Amino acid sequence: MTDARTTGDETPTLVATDTPSAAEMAVDVGVLVAHTAETGPERLRSFGERAAADAADELGSATDVTWRFYLEAPRRLPDTGRRRPAEFLDRATHEMVEGPYDAVLVVTDAPLVSSRERFVPGLASPLARVAVLSTRNLRRAPRGRPPRALDDAAVRWNGATLLVHLLGHVLGAGHSDGGAMAPFEFRPDRRAVPPMDADVEAYLHRIADEIPAEEATPRGPVGRLAFHARSALRNPSRVIGAVVNSRAPLLPLSLPKLSTAALTPTLVIVFSAESWDVGFNMDDVTAALFAVASVLVAAGYLFFAQNLSFPRKRHRLVTEQTALVNVAVLLVLVLAMAGLFALVWSVMLVVELLVFPPDLMSNWPSLEDPTVGFVDLVRTGAFISTIGVLSGALAGGLESRTIIAHLTLFRDRP
């Protein structure tokens, strides 16, 4: 990659680099400052510069490549409320493509919350290669004392340690028993960045050649689709890991609007004789294909209708990281819709088995064979559930565009 980087009319500044290594490879990190009205942009910018400078040498030593940090123009947040890390993902992926960068670090003074609604000092997304660092926890002082200043020595060195820790997660390193990758905790007496332990350093050395991501300029929708598919096939473990960690089939339980929109019409349809007539006369293969089609259509509709791809703005250049993010989000939506189908189906079976009078169907003249077996109940419930999934996607949607990315991409602890 070259040193020339531009974003619109602004030129990012090279603020930190480690001692150049013998290797020709370099990792370029974009640093985004997102400040509230409580903290001026220059103060937060200075903190980010110091943290990058303090962390660069340790990162270079651990990976045996040169790390370069480029500071983008600060952006002001509209309020001082708490933020999910996914709320910064759109701008981060935009800058990653525009840079282009191998990773992006967001530095903010807004409080940061995890997927479990806990306040945390920072979170990382290995798949998106985006880390978000909040100074709010770092500045917290013991009760009765004013908050620490951003230029306080404890804030400086704990911030640099957290930066190294988060970028270690970005590269796929887990928590270790000691060193910079030990579970992060604020230590008032910290005055240096702890080194990586031997196991983590050996791991980072092994993956060093994978750090620079592939870039492409695909032509048209088909070219973009092919690049996304190729990126996913090159990195199946990263995509699968993000999807598994998201607990995607359980997501409908976190989306009450979607689940309500899916369940409400089915509770009416299940008492309709016409739905039973269709369900009884539908063969098993047709019912299964209809269920699969409804899940895929619902996921595709949500992905495109709510513009869940990253970055939101279309760019000529596409990076492998943004492609992997989009593939993971789409797969999570597919599994979430499958989970919604299972939820509605289970409710339909409960209604059919426990609420319906057992002899009610035998009195409906529309049914040629009034004998109702368990397989008939399962098939009819599945048919009604497909309608619920489609209505949930069309009428309910997602309460927030960021919730899928928040639960899919970011770890729930620093």
UniProtKB/TrEMBL annotation:
InterPro entries reported in the protein's UniProt record: MetalloPept_cat_dom_sf
Membrane-crossing segments per the record: 255-273, 285-304, 324-357, 377-398
Gene3D superfamilies linked to this entry: Collagenase (Catalytic Domain) (3.40.390.10)
Domain of life: Archaea
Keywords: Membrane, Transmembrane, Transmembrane helix
Name of this protein: Uncharacterized protein
